[in-house]
Design a protein that fits this description.
The protein is mainly alpha-helical. It is globular and about 60 Å long. The longest helix is centred in the middle third of the chain and has 31 residues. Helix 13 packs antiparallel against helix 20. It has 2 domains: 192 residues, Up-down Bundle (Growth Hormone, Chain: A); 203 residues, Growth Hormone, Chain: A (Up-down Bundle). The chain is built from 20 helices and no strands.
Length: 425
């Protein structure tokens, strides 16, 4: 089956409203996945959480998010992105309320699980809208915007969230996020009118599940999935987990200094997502910029592992470069989408997204085990060699993933004009 053309042109004003709304729900997702770090001491003191329970609380979001990607893909292709986004936003609102009202560790974990479930389709459903509503050659750039501006949610989960929690409390702050999510859900219902479900015959459940298997059997999708495992996991390994402890244990930095350096990496990620997102059109190639980005990121991690400790200015530059270089995920999504026929785009994007989130979950679990093999200081800090080992292993993982990805087919290279060719089922 040939991929149909864009269903209808989107007027410029409507396009801006559409993209802004879809980015807004992704900002919510980015905020929620990164929101535990800032308030962890407050929540632990108020509820009485152990370190293990804080770890469970943080990882629950990623586990649930990754676990439901295939069902989300089936729902997306059966019922369309509009319903998927609205229901997901509703579950997210419930999750914020449960989390805000929680008085026990179990209730906190339940709220966190609902947040992971509710936001699980926020990215892939948005990308499915872009695939349907816009020309194929704009897909990577729109994905770059989604990733880049959406990362504002990560920024909001740091210093701004700390100010909010100190002013109105973390519980009221989560209720405010729920209220904002409800407003975005209403906007989604307005800007996506007419996209209630895909056109054509409604698939049976068996056909939908068969489509998931077809995605997995698509040549080169497995290679892209392996690359996906290494990309987001590399960024979250530093910004979402070990960057803060590394800056504390090795440099003696306090909360404000840690936050500022991690903010530099996030700003680099935002700029990099938008820059990398246009590279496939500029170069007429998916694979070359992806391999360049992966290689440069591996070199950055490997260099830090080799040197161990940097002086002040090089450290700032390293965090900026790391965020910029590791932001090529939009190109991987565009490559995966280019390999799939239209009726499998939703399932394909969720399968690939499962690689992003599953890779983050695995990298954090494995790195925690590795760091635990090293002795700790009397104050509980980890030694430099522990961090160097983790950084080196992640660099090696990215190199191995790049080798697996190197053999992937690139449809974009088959067109002299750099536009994605029509795909046949």
């Amino acid at each position: 089956m040939t991929v149909p053309s864009v269903s209808r042109p989107v007027p410029s004003g409507a396009a801006v409203a559409l993209v802004a709304t879809l980015i807004s729900i992704y900002i919510v997702s980015q905020f929620l996945r990164n929101s535990i770090g800032v308030i962890a001491p407050n929540v632990a003191a108020e509820i009485g959480l152990s370190a293990a329970e804080i770890g469970l609380l943080s990882s629950t979001f990623f586990f649930v998010f990754a676990a439901v990607q295939i069902p989300v893909g089936v729902v997306l292709d059966r019922f369309g992105p509009r319903l998927c986004l609205i229901v997901g936003a509703a579950v997210t609102v419930v999750g914020t309320a449960v989390f805000a009202a929680a008085a026990s560790p179990g209730a906190l974990v339940l709220g966190r699980a609902l947040l992971g479930l509710g936001t699980a389709g926020s990215l892939v459903a948005s990308l499915a809208v872009y695939a349907r509503r816009f020309p194929p050659e704009r897909f990577a750039a729109l994905t770059g915007l989604q990733f880049g501006i959406g990362t504002v949610g990560t920024l909001l989960a740091t210093a701004p969230f700390a100010v909010s929690a100190a002013t109105i409390g973390w519980r009221a702050s989560f209720l405010a996020v729920g209220a904002f999510t409800l407003i975005v859900a209403l906007l989604i219902a307005l800007v996506l009118r007419g996209d209630a479900r895909p056109h054509g015959r409604h698939e049976t459940l068996r056909e939908s599940l068969s489509g998931v298997l077809a995605v997995m059997r698509t040549p080169s999708v497995g290679r892209i999935f392996v690359m996906n495992l290494s990309v987001y996991s590399t960024f979250t390994l530093i910004v979402g987990l070990w960057g803060g402890p590394y800056l504390t244990h090795i440099y003696g930095y306090g909360l404000e200094e840690r936050g500022n350096l991690l903010l530099v990496a996030v700003l680099g990620q935002i700029a990099g997502s938008m820059l990398w997102g246009a590279m496939d059109r500029l170069l007429g190639n998916h694979k070359l910029p992806i391999l360049l980005g992966a290689g440069a990121t591996a070199v950055a991690l490997g260099s830090l592992a080799l040197v161990g400790k940097l002086s002040a200015l090089p450290l700032v530059l390293w965090f900026a470069a790391f965020g910029l270089l590791s932001a090529f995920a939009p190109l991987l999504i565009a490559h995966g989408k280019a390999l799939l026929p239209a009726q499998q785009v939703g399932r394909g994007l969720t399968v690939l997204n499962m690689g992003f989130m599953g890779g983050a979950f695995l990298a954090q679990a494995v790195s925690g085990f590795v760091i635990g093999l090293f002795p700790t200081a009397p104050d509980g800090g980890y030694e430099l060699n522990a961090y160097r080992t983790v950084f080196a292993l992640q660099a090696l993982f990215m190199v191995l993933a790049s080798l697996a990805y190197f053999g992937a087919r690139d449809p974009l290279q088959q067109r002299p004009d750099g536009r994605q060719p029509a795909l046949s089922a």
